[in-house]
Each structure stands twice: as C-alpha cells, then as structure tokens.
Amino acid sequence: MRFIAYLSFDGRCREAFEFxxxxxxxxxxxxxxxxxxxxxxxxxxxxxDKIINAYLKVGEAELMGADSPPEFGDATMQGVxxxxxxxxxxxxxxxxxxxxxxxxxxxxxxxxxxAKKFGMVKDRYGTSWMINCADGQK
Length: 138
Description:
alpha/beta, 2 domains, Glyas_Bleomycin-R_OHBP_Dase, PhnB-like
C-alpha cells in the first residue's frame, strides 16, 4: 500500500503543477483536461480546459491533483499539509522560498530541536507545505 496526496484546485491546477514541477525538479507524467474526457459533457464550457487529473513525479515521490468545478464541491484544502523530507539544506531553502513567493509563511524555515531546518508555508495556490531538513534525509 502507498498513499499519494491528491490536491484540489479552483481552476489553477495546470499552473500549480507546472510550478511544482519546476520548483521540485519533477516531471509531469499526465495532465488531462475535463474536455478531453467523456466527463467533459458534464462540465461547463469555461471548465473544458481545466484539469481533471494531473500526475507529477519527483524521484520516487508522487503528487496528483485536479481542478474541482464549483458544481462538484469546494476546492479549498483545509487541515492538510504536504510534508517534504529532504537532506539538502540549500535545496530545502530554495523550495521553501519558491513556495513563500506569493504565499504565506506560517513558520519560518529555521533550525529546530529535531531538524537542521524546518518551516511551514502555504503557497500561492493554497497548498500547505512542511519542509523538514533533518539528518539522514535524502
């Protein structure tokens, strides 16, 4: 068994996943628009180019997401953070700063009793991230 985070967006999934691929040095494996599926007929005209499924790989890590049309529910993410475990302090700082640009820092990236650096940030797309740079992390 494995768990993969699946993020919901209000119409900015493509933009968010392209940003995540760049910041995290990942590869977008799949990006399917609502209009390119049989489900497209059930989505309004202005949502045809929005994403029904996005799939990003970063090494062995995976992240998925989609745009959630208003008629299918609320796209806001609450009570969830994506935790990145990373050993490279410079890379941790670069990722944290990229997410903080246009976002909101909820805890600055700094040394803690358990990590060389730890910080929490909500990015410009509403995704909450925890960056944990501890000894023994890859």
